[in-house]
Amino acid sequence: xxxxxxxxxxxxxxxxxxxxxxxxxxxxxxxxxxxxxxxxxxxxxxxxxxxxxxxxxxxxxxxxxxxxxxxxxxxxxxxxxxxxxxxxxxxxxxxxxxxxxxxxxxxxxxxxxxxxxxxxxxxxxxxxxxxxxxxxxxxxxxxxxxxxxxxxxxxxxxxxxxxxxxxxxxxxxxxxxxxxxxxxxxxxx
Amino acid sequence: xxxxxxxxxxxxxxxxxxxxxxxxxxxxxxxxxxxxxxxxxxxxxxxxxxxxxxxxxxxxxxxxxxxxxxxxxxxxxxxxxxxxxxxxxxxxxxxxxxxxxxxxxxxxxxxxxxxxxxxxxxxxxxxxxxxxxxxxxxxxxxxxxxxxxxxxxxxxxxxxxxxxxxxxxxxxxxxxxxxxxxxxxxxxxxxxxxxxxxxxxxxxxxxxxx
Lengths: 189, 210
Hints:
The complex is a heterodimer.
Chain A: H1 10-25, E1 29-31, E2 38-50, E3 57-62, H2 70-77, E4 81-91, E5 94-101, E6 106-111, H3 120-150, H4 153-168, H5 174-188
Antiparallel strand pairs in A: 1-2, 2-3, 2-4, 4-5, 5-6
Chain B: E1 8-16, H1 23-33, E2 47-52, E3 69-70, E4 73-82, H2 87-105, H3 112-129, E5 133-142, E6 147-150, H4 155-169, E7 172-175, H5 186-193
Helix pairs in contact in B: 2-3
């Protein structure tokens, strides 16, 4: 464990941007490995931005199509940092909504799929199972981000592609995205 | 909203410390020792902190482990009470008291010592009649895997929680750092630490100052 939990707080903000960008780049479906495999994920109905040196939100976007809105891209292009974002996750038949926030990767408003079990013990076990299911996905997504972030393709392909996305909404050609993905997959092996 | 129902809003901690073999009885005793207790002489703004059962904040005994231990999950609530006097009402009452004192003693203005005394008396009187502001934040500790979920993400309750958890169980809580998610891969963790900050702003167009 790291001594300072908030060490390198910019990493979570970068993870949030990557999640947003990767969901658009991959068309909402990605094989994230790590024992999780194929998932669907997309930015849901909330995306908030802050200035680099403060925590309170400066711009909060809610509603449908938040992630593709010009306002969201403009906030990113102006140098604001993603403070929190709501993500919809689908793993097999289980669907979750969760807002990720802050340097500690706080989990906010996590909604589980419908679950009906008898008894208090079983209810707790079921909810903890679902929590760990979501956490496994978040962990695997973060590890995927980390591999892209430290790879050679980050500065060569990914960062320019995010800048281009922020400026115009353009997404990289499939072969460029594939190159970045292939590099990361090779690093995993 | 919390451990048993509704949406979850939480901060994840890593728990580090030795778990005693007879943890069921040791922790029952520890929880009882640090359970929530009403303060005898509350002061304005003072916070009182202690554990309560997750099912009802008035249940503050932990003798029956079936109410707080579910296999390897330990659950309880952190109850934080704070008595706050309504400022405007307090001032209005204090003004009346001082006016009465002045009329009784034929003085135009009450001396500061009297003001202080009247203020303290009134605080005691009003605090006795004031209900506390009560907050309960649940937690769930996976004793086997060593992680804890605390149902609040604000700094102040989290500070209270870490402190009381350490005092109660002798276990230190460390909030999650994203680096912990890659801690099994040294190269990756080191790469991230050295990665610096990315600038997502579009590159300026050549020849255009901005």
